[in-house]
Write a structure and sequence with these properties.
Blueprint: H1 2-13, E1 16-21, H2 28-37, E2 42-51, E3 54-62, E4 67-73, E5 78-83, H3 88-91
Antiparallel strand pairs: 1-2, 2-3, 3-4, 4-5
Length: about 100
């Protein structure tokens, strides 16, 4: 029972809510930043994120070479850029078993 209570407490401490929002609902400061500082990037998806009461925005963008997530604070100030992570299966190709030597 104690283990369940501890696990529940840890889950509550790490609580984060991501809510999909329309690109048109992004603050103007964010859309302006994408247009000027990230020329060539096209916004794909946007999320409003609540982490322990701290609001932020995540915007998935794509350009000709890559995909990434741009992170902004509640006021639309740019915080960081995160490269899109490849799915685990695609990240490391499966290794083939070594061929048996012929006799």
């Amino acid at each position: 029972m104690l283990l369940f209570v501890i696990a529940l407490g840890v889950t509550a401490l790490n609580a984060q809510t991501r809510t999909a929002i329309k690109l048109a609902d992004l603050p103007k400061a964010i859309t302006d930043n994408i247009a000027t500082a990230h020329k060539g990037c096209v916004a794909q998806d946007a999320f409003k994120v609540d982490t322990k009461g701290v609001m932020s925005y995540e915007v998935a963008v794509k350009d000709a070479k890559s995909e990434m997530t741009l992170v902004y604070d509640k006021d639309g100030k740019f915080l960081k850029m995160e490269p899109k992570k490849a799915p685990a299966a695609a990240a490391a190709p499966a290794k083939k078993a070594p061929a048996k030597p012929k006799k």
